[in-house]
């Protein structure tokens, strides 16, 4: 191929290449010819060669050697060469290239050229790749062109001014006066550029925003003219007059009316007119309606207008286009907290979107459905959500189960319904629930004493049918161990009668212990349940003893330790077995939630009136009281301000003494109340901190987060930084979501080691997503409670 082939022939040769290697060979030969011709002083085909080089650049091959040729062609007096030179500059140069500084003077000269097309080339190039230095140098020229008489140039200059404002915020004041005068132009392109420029100015500066609020009547008048104007072939798109300008004006009105009642009142009538007169059968009309809805919801609009906006979003949910349905649900999600009743009217349509084939539409419908659950519709909504849970994709099961648990805890019409709902979820998607589900359900069952018989029968049946769902098996084992006597002797009228014998129950627990599907934690539940049945049945105690003894040599250390301790109860401490294995007392609700079955107590300051007894302050006595095995009644501490006699802990021939002997001589230690301080409180999110000193240099910090707003918070994370000499280890948090109204909390444990005893400080970063918007904040912690800093 000769070096002088036209651009069309080069494209044809490249496209006809059969392999990538052949294509590279064609391009390399042509680039070599172009490079050779660039070196010639008198080259009449410069624009032709640069055009070919730009095509090579578009294919992804290196073309940087053409940068200086672009600079030379921009300085050419011929329009044909300037056009290709400016095009090359926009493609091959950017503000990081030193060669871009060489064209500043050429652009300045061309901005003063009498030819409007040469001025247009310079404006487009500056708007495309102008650096901050170029913008500062050429901003006065752009301001002069904004006042030109040529509409074609003013349109280009307005868009160039937008780029300058984005690059150098301080230059926005220079264009304020000219931008306002452009709103009086008749040319739609000029008005469009002016609206974009004003929008940029208002977003960058609050003082400029206040100044442009006076232009709301002008913008309303322009918008009314577009809405009521007849057919115009130059601006009509699918029956809508200049929808691009309408969308830009609506966005600007949204910024001007936000948090301002006067500006909002001035545009209410216009927004109602646009919402009712715009055709929603075409995509163009839907775009205008969507911007109208966003504007109505963002300004201080009338209640009737907001209902109209929600109804428009409801119509979007019926659209066949999935993109329109998605943005409708995204918008409804943002306003469900403020316009709950209006959104509730479209509950049926939203629930139907759960059956959509698109994964993102289905996820958004799930989030919105969970936000719509209330006390009045809990039964119907839960029926739909449980049906969705049985068929939803695996990646949505955890979110669905968590949402159902939160809704059931908040709006459950009865305790039995609450338990049935959680058991249904555990049966359907037990492997996808969070760790705190098991202790929370156990706490719920413990507090509903009238349903113990019903619950243990239902869980026993569930265990017979399926032992693959580990959380369900753990709760079932716990209930059988606690209420096994009710399962064997109690008659539950609310369930079908089932013949249950001691052998049947032990067979089920042995199956769980021996199953390969059982996790070590589940086996621990089953072994403890088996041990507890030794005090609830009479004929199979020897079988239980043999089951327990088998696991005394188990490879799992936790299970082996339990079995050894239980064997000790059978052999050496059989006289206290009944007291130790008594039924658990009612578990008080823990506001911080549970983590992996372990309760984390929240420190609270309790004021005691004079004359009222305090709770026992001895750890061992609390333990004995919990197990119900203390033969000696616990003496309450006297009132504040009086001397408290020591409480005897271990005495000969007492259950307490035997228990201390069993546990290896546990010495009583008084409980030190842990102080809790609030380190962060903003926008409904509260983070508290409590410390517990583990050693001379070791410290455990507990961070607890709660959410008092009306909407759930997702993706909640805490990050901590400490001085370099302090070692930090962050344990896994209890969760990553904060339900609304503080129904559950997230707990994060941080272990610090300060060997050099430096002054301890911590910087905390809080990140989360609320109502679709990401939030990130930082707080400095300079003092820790209880350390005496």
From TrEMBL:
Main location: membrane
Membrane-topology annotation of the record: Peripheral membrane protein
InterPro entries per record: Adaptor_Complx_Large_Subunit (IPR050840), AP1_complex_gsu (IPR017107), ARM-like (IPR011989), ARM-type_fold (IPR016024), Clathrin/coatomer_adapt-like_N (IPR002553), Clathrin_a/b/g-adaptin_app_Ig (IPR008152), Clathrin_app_Ig-like_sf (IPR013041), GAE_dom (IPR008153)
Subcellular location: Cytoplasmic vesicle membrane; Endomembrane system; Golgi apparatus
UniProt xrefs under SUPFAM superfamilies: ARM repeat (SSF48371), Clathrin adaptor appendage domain (SSF49348)
Keywords, ordered alphabetically: Cytoplasmic vesicle, Golgi apparatus, Membrane, Protein transport, Transport
Cited PROSITE patterns: GAE
GO biological process, one term: intracellular protein transport
SMART domains assigned: Alpha_adaptinC2 (SM00809)
Keyword Protein transport: yes
Chain segments carrying region Disordered: 591-614
Compositionally biased region (Polar residues): 591-606
GO cellular component: AP-1 adaptor complex
Domain (GAE): residue spans on this chain: 672-785
Record-stated family: Belongs to the adaptor complexes large subunit family.
Full protein name: AP-1 complex subunit gamma
Annotated source species: Astatotilapia calliptera (Eastern happy)
Lineage: Eukaryota, Metazoa, Chordata, Craniata, Vertebrata
């Amino acid at each position: 191929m000769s070096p002088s082939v036209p651009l069309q022939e080069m494209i044809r040769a490249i496209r006809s290449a059969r392999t990538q290697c052949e294509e590279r060979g064609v391009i390399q030969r042509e680039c070599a010819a172009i490079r050779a011709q660039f070196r010639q002083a008198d080259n009449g085909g410069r624009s032709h060669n640069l055009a070919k080089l730009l095509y090579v650049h578009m294919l992804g091959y290196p073309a940087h050697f053409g940068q200086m040729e672009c600079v030379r062609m921009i300085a050419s007096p011929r329009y044909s060469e300037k056009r290709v030179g400016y095009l090359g500059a926009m493609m091959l140069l950017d503000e990081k290239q030193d060669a871009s500084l060489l064209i500043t003077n050429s652009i300045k000269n061309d901005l003063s050229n009498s030819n409007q097309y040469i001025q247009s080339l310079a404006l487009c190039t500056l708007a495309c790749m102008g650096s901050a230095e170029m913008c500062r140098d050429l901003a006065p020229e752009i301001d002069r062109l904004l006042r030109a008489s040529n509409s074609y140039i003013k349109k280009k200059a307005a868009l160039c001014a937008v780029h300058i404002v984005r690059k150098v915020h301080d230059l926005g004041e220079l264009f304020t006066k000219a931008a306002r005068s452009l709103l009086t132009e008749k040319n739609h392109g000029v008005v469009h550029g002016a609206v974009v420029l004003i929008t940029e100015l208002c977003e960058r500066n609050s003082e400029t925003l206040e100044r442009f609020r006076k232009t709301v009547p002008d913008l309303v008048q322009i918008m009314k003219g577009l809405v009521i104007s007849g057919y115009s072939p130059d601006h009509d798109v699918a029956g809508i007059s200049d929808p691009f300008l309408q969308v830009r004006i609506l966005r600007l009105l949204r910024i001007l009316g936000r948090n301002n009642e006067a500006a909002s009142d001035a545009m209410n009538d216009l927004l109602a007119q646009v919402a009712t007169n715009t055709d929603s059968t075409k995509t163009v009309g839907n775009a205008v309606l969507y911007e109208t809805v966003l504007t109505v919801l963002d300004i201080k609009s009338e209640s009737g207008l907001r209902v109209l906006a929600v109804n428009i979003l409801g119509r979007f949910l019926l659209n066949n286009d999935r993109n329109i349905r998605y943005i409708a649900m995204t918008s409804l999600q943002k306003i469900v907290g403020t316009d709950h009743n209006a959104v509730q009217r479209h509950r049926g349509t939203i629930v139907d979107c759960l059956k959509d084939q698109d994964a993102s539409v289905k996820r958004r419908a799930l989030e919105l459905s969970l936000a719509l659950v209330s006390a009045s519709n809990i039964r119907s909504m839960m029926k739909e959500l449980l049906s969705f849970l049985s068929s939803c994709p695996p990646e949505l099961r955890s979110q669905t189960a968590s949402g159902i648990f939160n809704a059931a805890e908040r709006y459950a019409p009865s305790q039995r319904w609450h338990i049935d709902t959680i058991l249904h979820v555990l049966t359907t998607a037990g492997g996808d629930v969070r760790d705190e589900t098991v202790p929370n359900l156990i706490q719920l069952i413990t507090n509903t004493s009238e349903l113990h018989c019903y619950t243990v029968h239902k869980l026993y049946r569930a265990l017979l049918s399926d032992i693959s769902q580990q959380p369900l098996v753990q709760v079932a084992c716990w209930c059988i161990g606690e209420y096994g006597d009710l399962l064997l002797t109690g008659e539950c009228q609310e369930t079908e009668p089932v013949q249950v014998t001691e052998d049947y129950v032990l067979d089920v627990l042995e199956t769980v212990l021996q199953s390969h599907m059982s996790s070590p934690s589940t086996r621990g539940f089953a072994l403890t349940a088996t041990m507890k049945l030794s005090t609830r049945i009479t004929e199979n105690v020897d079988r239980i003893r043999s089951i327990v003894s088998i696991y005394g040599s188990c490879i799992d250390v936790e299970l082996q330790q339990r079995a050894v301790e239980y064997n000790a109860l059978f052999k050496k401490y059989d006289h206290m077995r009944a007291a130790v294995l008594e039924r658990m007392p009612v578990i008080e609700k823990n506001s911080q939630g549970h983590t992996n079955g372990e309760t984390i107590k929240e420190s609270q300051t309790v004021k005691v009136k004079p004359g009222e007894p305090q709770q026992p302050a001895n750890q061992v006595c609390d333990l004995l009281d919990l197990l119900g095995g203390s033969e000696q009644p616990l003496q309450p501490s006297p009132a504040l301000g009086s001397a408290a006699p020591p409480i005897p802990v271990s005495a000969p021939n007492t259950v307490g003494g035997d228990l201390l002997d069993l546990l290896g001589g546990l010495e009583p230690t008084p409980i030190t109340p842990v102080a809790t301080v609030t380190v962060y409180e903003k926008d409904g999110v509260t983070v508290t901190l409590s410390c517990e000193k583990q050693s001379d240099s070791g410290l455990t910090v507990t961070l607890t987060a709660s959410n008092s707003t009306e909407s759930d918070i997702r993706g909640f994370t805490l990050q901590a930084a400490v001085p370099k000499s302090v070692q930090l280890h962050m344990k896994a948090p209890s969760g990553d979501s904060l339900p609304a109204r503080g129904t559950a909390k997230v707990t994060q444990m941080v272990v610090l080691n300060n060997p050099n005893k430096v002054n301890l400080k911590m910087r905390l970063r809080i990140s989360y997503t609320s109502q679709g918007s990401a939030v990130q904040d930082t707080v400095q912690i300079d003092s820790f409670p209880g350390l005496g800093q």
